[in-house]
UniProtKB/TrEMBL annotation:
GO terms for molecular function: metal ion binding; methyltransferase activity. This is S-adenosylmethionine-dependent methyltransferase. InterPro entries: MeTrfase_7, MeTrfase_capping, SAM-dependent_MTases_sf. It comes from Buddleja alternifolia. Transmembrane segments: none annotated. It comes from the Eukaryota. GO terms for biological process: methylation. It holds the Pfam family Methyltransf_7. Belongs to the methyltransferase superfamily. Type-7 methyltransferase family. Keywords: Magnesium, Metal-binding, Methyltransferase, Transferase.
Length: 373
């Protein structure tokens, strides 16, 4: 298969990663408060890092800011406003040595099938002081001109892979993920295949941003993660919920003849949620271009409690996973699947309590090193 065909197939697969469109009851707009909780905690840190770490250099008279994985803007707009206000504040502080206040250009990026219409129709008409530009495409590759970006931001997006690891879908491989829709730490070969793919994809993301960012620019990454150690009997994480509850509902439907087990064997969700040491080690591979200025775990308790009911958690999962599930299994099974998922949650005291959710969010702030000439 030639490279061009491979790229087309990859782009088509990644297009399915888009969150549910519109503003209806199953949309991402209505069901992303869990993700927003991390931004609320990160706000003060972003402001501090911009004030103390960002190098003020605007040779073209503008600041380029990008959100990689913006979805429909519901959580992106507040983040961009925080960043721009912090940049303005710093610029005014240095106004004696800098030209007039620059223009701000915000590049909203997501996969080509993202609902950009909702994003633009939701753009605050009188509450933003920047030029908004859409940049559709896979953020694991180059999207913007060289040295055009002063601040890069990504929240709850970098867990998505460019593809399901090939070994996981190969029935002749020891990493074949039979009967599961995501990795578990108990299945060593599957787990390592996912981790390897995640490492490659993060490195590709970093290589692309290294070209696009100006020297001294900052990048803030809010990355969902799991603790290195947690108790699966009394605690859970998002990947655990996907496999134990959503995945087992699919298997129940197969046993009842609603679908074939082979259909499940050929379906794997293409994301990986790292531990803090894993993410740090991967980011450090990019130290030729970036320095890690700050890396810490955010307290997202408030966000978790926004999905503290059965209905809210099911709506959250549906908004994120529906396109992938409907493409593989057919849209006709979606309502039944999530009804079963809610019943599964109701039968489990562990999953009913949001305090048992040990999914964490890592905030990593990186700075673009000066290029070697």
């Amino acid at each position: 298969m030639n490279k061009h065909v491979e790229n087309i197939q990859s782009d088509n697969a990644v297009a399915l990663y888009a969150m549910n469109a519109g503003e209806g009851p199953h949309s991402y707009v209505q069901n992303s408060t869990y993700q927003k909780g991390a931004l609320d905690v990160a706000k003060a840190i972003l402001e501090e890092e911009i004030a103390t770490k960002l190098d003020i250099k605007t040779p073209n008279g503008y600041y380029g800011i990008a959100d990689f994985g913006c979805s429909t803007g519901h959580n992106s707009f507040p983040a961009m406003q925080i960043i721009i206000q912090a940049l303005n504040k710093k610029h005014k502080h240095h106004q004696t040595s800098l030209p007039k206040t620059p223009e701000f250009y915000v590049f909203f990026n997501d996969v080509v099938s993202n609902d950009f219409n909702t994003l633009f129709s939701s753009l605050p008409p009188n509450d933003h002081d920047y030029h908004a530009i859409v940049v559709p495409g896979d953020f694991h590759g180059r999207l913007l001109p060289e040295s055009s970006l002063h601040f890069a931001y990504s929240s709850w997006s970098l867990q998505w892979l460019t593809e399901v690891p090939k070994a996981v879908a190969d029935r002749n491989s020891p990493a074949w993920n039979k009967g599961q829709i995501l990795y578990t730490q108990d299945e060593k070969e599957v787990y390592e295949a996912y981790l390897s793919q995640y490492g490659k994809d993060i490195e590709s993301f970093m290589e692309a941003r290294a070209v696009e960012m100006v020297d001294g620019g900052l990048m803030a990454l809010l990355v969902p993660a799991v603790p290195a150690v947690w108790n699966p009997k009394t605690e859970y994480t998002v990947p655990c919920d996907v496999n134990l509850n959503l995945g087992s509902c699919l298997m129940d439907m197969a046993k009842e003849g609603r679908m074939s087990e082979t259909k499940i064997d050929t379906f794997n969700i293409p994301y990986y949620v790292p531990t803090p040491p894993q993410l740090k080690e991967i980011l450090e591979r990019s130290n030729d271009s970036f320095t890690i200025e700050r890396m810490e775990i955010l307290n997202n308790t408030a966000g978790k409690h926004t999905v503290g009911t059965i209905n809210a958690r099911a709506a959250f999962f549906r908004a994120v996973h529906e396109r992938l599930l409907a493409d593989h299994f057919g849209s006709e099974i979606i309502d039944e699947l999530f009804d079963r998922y809610m019943n599964k949650l109701a039968a489990s005291p562990v999953f009913l309590n949001p305090d048992n959710d040990k999914t964490i969010v890592i905030l990593a702030v990186l700075k673009r090193k000066a290029r070697r000439h």
